[in-house]
Amino acid sequence: MALVFLTCLACLAGPARAELADFTPEERAYVRDLGPVTVCVDPDWPPFERLNARGQYEGVGADLFRLAAEVAGLRYRIVPTADWDESVAASKDGRCRLLAFLNQTPARDEWLLFTPPLFTDANVFITREEHFFIADPAELTGETIVFPSGTSMEERVRRDYPNLRVLNSASEREALDMVSERKADMTLRSLVVAAYTIKKEGLFNLKIAGKLPGYDNALRIGVSKDMPQLRDILSKAVRTITPAEREEIVNRHVSINVETVTDYGLVGRIAAGFALIVAIVVAWNLRINKLYAELERRSRTDPLTGLANRTHLDAVLRQEADRAERYNRPFAVILFDVDLFKAVNDAHGHLVGDKVLKTLAKAAQATVRASDMVGRWGGEEFLVLCPETDAASALVLAERLRLAVRGEPFETGSVQTVSLGVAAFAPGDSVDSLLIRADDALYRAKNAGRDRAMAA
């Protein structure tokens, strides 16, 4: 079956594919004269890559690398190693000129050049069943995370999350075993590899407990730094591989594993098991994406009023100020707060005070324009961002806000008022100077008797 598969890959990588890569005559001559190039791989990283009992290179990464090499017309020789650490060491000392399937990192940039990704895959946290969902690893204290020695994810986590204590294992399987046996709290591994290993090894006390955005695997070919022309040639070859072809290679790889079994009842159970893995992976992705969308929404929203919170307002304010300065566009802000709010809390209690803020927020949201953003700046203070708006137009909007709040029925049973300060962005302004002028205008409105809008 393996021979048939290699023949099919050769068909895909025929002269038409090489022409698609648009190699120059000089590049073709370079590869032809290069001779066999030594390649190191991870000998134990199924289903991505491994060296089987006969020393043959196999797996999804193996098939993708083989396809890129055939498109480029590259002859190569796999150098067997005992583990990934030895493969990396062989790459550093020149025994291997290529690493076939790995992430790019700053440390690896010191001795390797990289092609575009052959394959991308999410990294996920794997924990025991009882562990809580991990939304932000920066908030974890006293927890351990295990990685197979020498992985790019270990390098990144050590840099970005010093609050986690990093442990090492000799292999993917050992990393998952350490979590399963409570020797580590978690690991961060490829979604495909984790689902495959958990199912294959029966580690059913483990679960996927979160996804770390920006930590996806982008698995590339690493080329010795003294061979930039080879990197460029292989990059052209990698770019000819389409998403559909990547999917076909994955499917063919799975087919190889299934078709070597002669017990067709077992074949059906294996196929059903693989379908279950796919369903679990898809379900977890949907669940995790939904949770992250909700977490992102909450991170931008004030929980009491439902408006933008100060963190989100501040980020958008700085973007709009930069845009106003760069393109000389009008931009204004309206800063307002509730008049005599302390008296409301003293007379009616904080629960009623919270209801007043919620009612005011609803009235403000209904009054501002679609292009504006209103949010809670802090306490009883609110801020409106008004893109493409000069001072005069912002003052008109502020007056509409004042009247809208005045006409709103509040839980106190009394008329509630606000004072508002308006400031427009001027050349040379900073975010701080703009807010200071709006704040000054607000206090002038307060000192003038409240329930009014004033411009800086």
UniProtKB/TrEMBL annotation:
EC number: 2.7.7.65
Pfam families membership: GGDEF (PF00990), SBP_bac_3 (PF00497)
SUPFAM superfamilies xrefs: Nucleotide cyclase (SSF55073), Periplasmic binding protein-like II (SSF53850)
InterPro entries reported in the protein's UniProt record: Diguanylate_Cyclase, GGDEF_dom, Nucleotide_cyclase, Rev_trsase/Diguanyl_cyclase, Solute-binding_3/MltF_N
Gene3D superfamilies in the cross-refs: 3.30.70.270, Periplasmic binding protein-like II
Segments crossing the lipid bilayer: 266-288
Residue ranges of every copy of the GGDEF domain listed in the record: 329-456
Keyword annotations of the record: Membrane, Signal, Transmembrane, Transmembrane helix
UniProt xrefs under SMART domains: GGDEF, PBPb
GO CC list: plasma membrane
Molecular function GO labels: diguanylate cyclase activity
One GO process term, biological-process aspect: negative regulation of bacterial-type flagellum-dependent cell motility
CDD domains cross-referenced by the UniProt entry: GGDEF, PBP2_BvgS_like_1
Domain of life: Bacteria
Class of enzymatic activity (EC top level): transferase
Catalytic activity field: 2 GTP = 3',3'-c-di-GMP + 2 diphosphate
Leader sequence segment: 1-18
NCBIfam families on file: GGDEF
Name of the protein described by the UniProt record: diguanylate cyclase
